[in-house]
Amino acid sequence: xxxxxxxxxxxxxxxxxxxxxxxxxxxxxxxxxxxxxxxxxxxxxxxxxxxxxxxxxxxxxxxxxxxxxxxxxxxxxxxxxxxxxxxxxxxxxxxxxxxxxxxxxxxxxxxxxxxxxxxxxxxxxxxxxxxxx
Amino acid sequence: xxxxxxxxxxxxxxxxxxxxxxxxxxxxxxxxxxxxxxxxxxxxxxxxxxxxxxxxxxxxxxxxxxxxxxxxxxxxxxxxxxxxxxxxxxxxxxxxxxxxxxxxxxxxxxxxxxxxxxxxxxxxxx
Lengths: 133, 126
Known about the structure:
A: alpha+beta; Heat Shock Protein 90; five-stranded antiparallel beta sheet; 4 helices; B: alpha/beta; 44% helix; globular
């Protein structure tokens, strides 16, 4: 289980690094090529969100097990301003930045489990899991 | 920073993205291509993403922006070589890349540009 670990997200080059590490972990878990692509894409969106909206953060990459099923869990944490209205933030096309507003809502569609915790002034934690089929 | 080379073949500019590009690299490509379209008077731009393992919303938006910029500069853009897993993921992400023409591979992309008119490369004249 070498692919597990924590990475800090402090600059653009870290987004590339997150993609590479998540890809390696997804291969290790045995995700299909399409599922690898989905979780790496979600990781790219969430890492960029942490960078753009919170000035940086970190991600914990973890291989998890549920009975006989293996999964890949990514927990993105930041100490940014937090999200006042989580429902609104999860709406397609909603953005306070200059992106497309697909980062959060799109990432949710790409994974099996999605959990978003945030409050103003308390940062944001997004946890996503993709299970091997 | 990685910079993607822009190749010229007849009236067509070809870029093939071979590395996992950082966001600045993506933005630099946008500017390099706009400059190259004007400098060469190219009528078509082909972006080969055969080697690209993921297209997230940032890269997707860049592809759409390049297509819009080129069109304004009188050139058509064709994205070629998208992997099936990338296509599936893009649609699920919610990015349909409307306005971006695609072809399965470089050869079909060149044929499409020739069909659209304007662009001609020497190798197509037999």
